[in-house]
């Protein structure tokens, strides 16, 4: 088992990356408060560099390397926000980033990774193909592999979002985050429970990709059965590391339907005038569907990102 990050690791990560990241704003909405019966505080990582919280973990790992180690570059496989985050962090560090992407990745994401300086190697759209090509790249270059969530440094970096949120709003009763591979929820739960042991930590997950929910309820990590969800950032499954952290530090995981996710996403777009991606809408959907039985509480929500294909908005299909 890989080491579990501590609050001190998260503090160290925050010190390391704060000059590279945006300290993202916390927004509120009276209309959202009225809809949910609570006071909601949105930590808007959709305004983070690369448009997602992923830049926190990526920059923490990239900037933690010694120069001699770093100059060989970094490598990962991803078709989404992690690819962009690694590419930009490496560019800022002045080292190469080798990104393995499925050849059917959205063109907008290919352009973004290339624009951040990533050296792209395309592969077939299967996990085995990704891993095989990644190993070829690492053997050729000597680059260091950075996973998207199954890594203590990544988790510590992601935990800095909640660390900031609790600096700004230390009296929160509940903190919520979406869960896919579990890197964000792991970091969130470590920060929350160590800064304020009384805070309730809730994970939110699509019912159509509910491995974290089933794992949490059974006490044993469960394989993903289906990932047919519009929340594309949540289609991955927990690792042993993220499951162990979430099982220890999270109070519950709640699932919601695709219809609820779309409705919540549209609500935030229309009422708050900010762009959030479907994954970010999942905890909002939990609140709007009244699936969390609390009232008149102060609830912090990590808005994970805002990278959306504007040609394929879910309410237009």
What would you note in describing this structure?
This protein is of the alpha/beta class and 317 residues long. It has helices at residues 7-17, 30-36, 54-62, 67-70, 81-93, 107-115, 127-141, 152-158, 160-168, 183-195, 211-218, 240-249, 258-272, 278-288; strands spanning 26-27, 39-44, 74-77, 97-102, 119-123, 144-145, 174-178, 200-206, 252-256, 298-303. The strands form 2 sheets. Strands 1-2-10-7-8-9 form a 6-stranded mixed sheet, with helices on both faces. A 4-stranded parallel sheet has the order 5-4-3-6, with helices on both faces. The longest helix is centred in the middle third of the chain and has 15 residues, at 127-141. 53% of the residues are buried.
Short description:
With 317 residues, this protein is of the alpha/beta class.
SSE blueprint and pairings:
Layout: H1 7-17, E1 26-27, H2 30-36, E2 39-44, H3 54-62, H4 67-70, E3 74-77, H5 81-93, E4 97-102, H6 107-115, E5 119-123, H7 127-141, E6 144-145, H8 152-158, H9 160-168, E7 174-178, H10 183-195, E8 200-206, H11 211-218, H12 240-249, E9 252-256, H13 258-272, H14 278-288, E10 298-303
Parallel strand pairs: 2-10, 3-4, 3-6, 4-5, 7-8, 7-10, 8-9
Antiparallel strand pairs: 1-2
Helix pairs in contact: 1-3, 1-8, 3-5, 3-8, 5-6, 8-10, 9-10, 10-12, 13-14
């Amino acid at each position: 088992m890989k080491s579990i990050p501590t609050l001190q690791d998260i503090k160290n990560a925050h010190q390391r990356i704060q000059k590279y990241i945006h300290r993202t704003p916390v927004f509120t909405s009276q209309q959202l408060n009225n809809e949910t019966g609570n006071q909601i505080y949105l930590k808007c990582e959709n305004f983070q560099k690369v448009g997602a919280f992923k830049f926190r973990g990526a920059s923490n790992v990239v900037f933690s390397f010694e120069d001699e180690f770093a100059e060989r570059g970094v490598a990962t496989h991803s078709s989404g926000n992690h690819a962009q985050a690694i590419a930009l962090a490496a560019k800022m560090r002045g080292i190469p980033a080798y990104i393995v992407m499925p050849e059917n990745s959205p063109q907008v994401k290919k352009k973004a990774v290339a624009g951040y300086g990533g050296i792209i190697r395309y592969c077939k759209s299967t996990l085995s193909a990704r891993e095989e090509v990644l190993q070829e790249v690492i053997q050729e270059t000597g680059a260091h592999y950075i996973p998207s969530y199954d890594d203590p440094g990544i988790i510590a970096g992601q935990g800095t979002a909640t660390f900031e949120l609790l600096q700004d709003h230390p009296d929160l009763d509940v903190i919520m985050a979406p869960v896919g591979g579990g890197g964000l929820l792991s970091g969130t739960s470590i920060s929350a429970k160590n800064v304020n042991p009384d805070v309730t930590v809730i994970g939110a997950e699509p019912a159509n990709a509910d491995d974290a929910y089933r794992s949490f309820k059974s006490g044993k990590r469960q394989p993903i059965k289906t990932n047919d969800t519009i929340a594309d950032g949540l289609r991955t499954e927990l690792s042993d590391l993220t499951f162990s952290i979430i099982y220890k530090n999270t109070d519950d995981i709640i699932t919601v339907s695709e219809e609820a996710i779309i409705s919540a996403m549209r609500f935030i777009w229309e009422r708050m005038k900010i762009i959030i991606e479907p994954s970010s809408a999942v905890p909002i959907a939990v609140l709007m569907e009244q699936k969390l039985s609390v009232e008149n509480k102060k609830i912090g929500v990590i808005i994970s990102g805002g990278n959306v294909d504007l040609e394929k908005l879910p309410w237009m299909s």
